[in-house]
Write a structure and sequence with these properties.
The protein is mainly α. The protein has one domain (about 40-235). The chain has 10 helices and no strands.
Length: about 240
């Protein structure tokens, strides 16, 4: 089925799926699902994180391969988190990006570049303005920073759409922007909630940072599933 580019955010963006997205999400449900899914999958998550972390560390140490390995592992972590939410996670999800290497590498690199283009100017101008004492430059940096706070939360579904729906990065950026149109301020609130959760984990003798970091990403997964809908069926996935 083809879908209109002008379809409302709560339109069925899939066919034959188990659960239709509503175009909305509930903070309470996000917290509840993130909490439940963290502890239901914690042992598996710990194993995947140790192996994935070691693989990323080895790639970073060797410098050159990092650019060709880390984005693909990030793709795998994204799939793993999606399946944590769906209660279908497997250890092999970590390496799922290598089965679609070009798409995974190119998509994640392009998304990172897009994120930096939006986020970096405000940060750079802020540093220059602070060091030079230029009030006008500081004002411009503030405008850029505020703009990024409005734009970036609406793009956080992009990697999920690439992994979960098989969209290219440009299409996923566009779709993420589209489906968050009715929840743009809630998306900002979700990012703030993530930060508060991480802060709470740090304050809890640093021990809580591990489950807090897991929950913070599962918050986004829960919101994504509520807005967009459940996973594709096996037939659609192929």
């Amino acid at each position: 089925m083809s879908h209109s580019a002008y379809a409302p955010p709560n339109a069925d963006l899939r066919t034959g799926t188990d659960e239709l997205g509503t175009g909305e999400f509930d903070f309470g449900r996000c917290m509840s699902e993130a909490w439940d899914n963290t502890w239901a999958n914690f042992g598996l998550w710990l194993g995947v994180s140790i192996v994935g972390g070691m693989a990323i560390l080895l790639a970073v140490i060797t410098v050159i391969p990092a650019l060709f390995v880390v984005p693909v592992l990030v793709w795998g972590f994204t799939q793993f988190y999606l399946r944590m939410h769906d209660r279908t996670a497997m250890f092999g999800d970590l390496f799922s990006g290598f089965s679609c290497y070009g798409r995974a590498l190119g998509g994640m690199l392009l998304f990172s570049l897009a994120w930096l283009i939006i986020w970096l100017p405000g940060q750079v101008l802020s540093q220059i303005g602070a060091q030079s004492g230029d009030a006008l430059l500081s004002l411009v940096s503030l405008i850029f920073s505020l703009a990024s706070l409005v734009i970036l939360p609406r793009l956080v579904f992009t990697p999920l759409l690439m992994v979960d729906r098989g969209l290219s990065c440009p299409d996923a950026l566009s779709r993420s922007w589209q489906v968050t149109a009715n929840v743009k301020w809630k998306m900002l609130g979700l990012m703030i909630l993530q930060s508060l959760l991480i802060m709470a984990g740090v304050l809890f003798f640093f021990v809580g940072i591990i489950p807090a970091s897991v929950m913070s990403y599962l918050l986004v997964i829960s919101a994504y599933r509520q807005v967009v809908g459940g996973p594709l069926t096996a037939v659609e996935a192929h």
